[in-house]
UniProtKB/TrEMBL annotation:
It comes from Shewanella metallivivens. Signal peptide: none annotated. PANTHER family: PROTEIN-GLUTAMINE GAMMA-GLUTAMYLTRANSFERASE. This is DUF3488 and transglutaminase-like domain-containing protein. Residues 414-485 form the Transglutaminase-like domain. SMART domains: TGc. SUPFAM superfamilies: Cysteine proteinases. The chain crosses the membrane at residues 12-29, 35-53, 60-77, 83-100, 107-124, 130-150, 162-181, 565-584. It holds the Pfam family Transglut_core. Keywords: Membrane, Transmembrane, Transmembrane helix.
Amino acid sequence: MKDNFDAIISRNTLFWLLVTNVAVLSPLYEKATLWSIGICAICFVWRVGIYLGKVAAPPKILVTSLAIGAAITLALVSSEIGLLNALVNLLILGYALKYIEMREQRDVKAIVLVGYFLIALTLLDQQGMLNTLHLLAVVVINTGILISVYQDKSNKFANLGFSVKIIIQSLPLAILLFVVFPRLGPLWLVPNMKSATTGLSDEMSFGDISKLTRSADLAFRVGFENLDGSTTGPSNQDLYWRTLVMENYDGKTWRQDPSIKNLQRQAFFQKPQRDKALQSKQNRKIDYIVISEPSHQKWLHGLDEAFSENNQVVELPDYRLYSLRPVDQRMSYRVTSYPDSIMEPTLKDNTKKLNLTLPSNSNLKTQALAQQFAQEYPDPQARLNAMMNYFAEQAYYYTLSPPPVGEQQIDDFLFENRAGFCAHYASAMVFMARASGLPARMVTGYQGGEYNPQAGYYSIYQYMAHAWTEVWLEGKGWQRFDPTAMIAPQRILDGFDATFDSQSSYLQDSPFSTLRMKQYPWLNELRQQLSSLDYYWSVWVLGFDEERKQQVLSKLLGDVTSSKIALMMIFSFIIIALVIGYYAGLFSQNTQQDPLNKRYQLLCQRLAKRGIPRPQGQAPQDYANDVVARLSDKHPRLAADFNALSQAFMAIKYQPLTPEQSQQQQQQFMRLYRKLRLRLLRS
């Protein structure tokens, strides 16, 4: 039996289905398994062959076999890739397999519907400005395919134009709902994606942070909101972005204490809180908004003692900010920091014991040096100052490629190698402070930031990862000590780039990073302008929370009340409905004129202004003869073009044409129409 596939689904629809298939699936390639990608490629190549007429539609047994094989494979690997990734792959495979077996228009409708689901799924994970524009273009094509099912046209772009009009008409309503509709929390918890984590880890060895210096990835951005309207933050030497606190040390690795890990696990059900009463009485505070990039981890970033009103952020007792859910997409949260706050004025006995603990028989030389400091400097502050000066007075070096160390890591570093990165110096400082009788701990995070004057915000990259020491002092609480400032002061005062060569660090493995534009002033300015657009998108669209919504409504309505919001919505709905009704022709009293006649009449009117009127009822061919007779001497090209346009017009209107001939004549008419319209307008 002959397959009547092409007679049921138009080639126009088939063409745009090919385009949409690639556009819908390409953003999800990171979540697709190799098996899924292989099946999608087979389906696409086969579909291209069907479109070109080289192969027939595949037998159902083949499609069924691929579906069963894909389902079995996903079931076997679901524990490795995560439940949500398995479901995403299942949806991708369903889309591809339905795509290859479609035979009727109802199959096209099913593919379009699944395409919308995949677009929405991609938008949940990729919300950047460029990604959103790309997905908007995919929505246009997907909608155009749906329109072609009901209104097929020979012109490939006709349905796309109608799709664009529909989406443009829906934008005012979407913007209205975006501004007015309440911000709701997630209605369900998404299963773990098993995605690779990025950035800092809750364990740290000597070489961990130095690995991040080879990454040019953006970690987060910060916009300061000062009372005077300025957007500059504290100086670079005060930008210590606190992320993790580690108190357990086994001689090789720093880890979070199990008690704080247990508190993090319980945070979703019982939120820990820090007392804000003392801090709120202080005069000096810093307000800022943080936009964290996806890290697939839960730790957040803040300066000093930080508080956030975001209901998805909790404040842990070790003075960190912590997210209730993994940061799997860009997350925006407002923070208030109190730089003069005393962190933990009174130290509990168990916390003190924990931060004085050292591994047994570990780094005996360093312990002896610490005891020497304790004897010479009984005052804790003087002792710590002496330890800091020790790093500056001795021949120590700051390097991204430190030599290896043995079992006694800190002894080897302090007395043998004398070269290391921030983790080396911070570890040595914590160890010496503990050995001298002072509670101390390791803090990791980021130091510094690149200021963008175009939009007034700071970008913090992974290569700015840093480690420093905190020591508890009576009456002063936890105090920050950073030995790096003694070895490489420019690293702290002016940033990472003031100390290290970018080409041998964070740009070494990033040949296409936009950070390479830094060395060219005009390209760097362009880079910052483009980054500013993405920042504004993150602040005003992704970060459009209840506070920003109230600000916008206050500017529009003054005093925001429920009645005013309801009236604004009713008035807006009426305006939107009237505009759509007008463009739909609901208010037009005259019968809508054929676009072809309308364009022809426009040219006739312009020729009438040149003294060649068309009498009522005159045939197009007779009028064309009059135009040629009047213009052939002075404007032969114009006369010839109008005569050719008239021939195309009459062919379309009065001659029986095949679809291909009709399309050729319409293209000829439109080409000559644009040409004559401009020439007649200029003359």
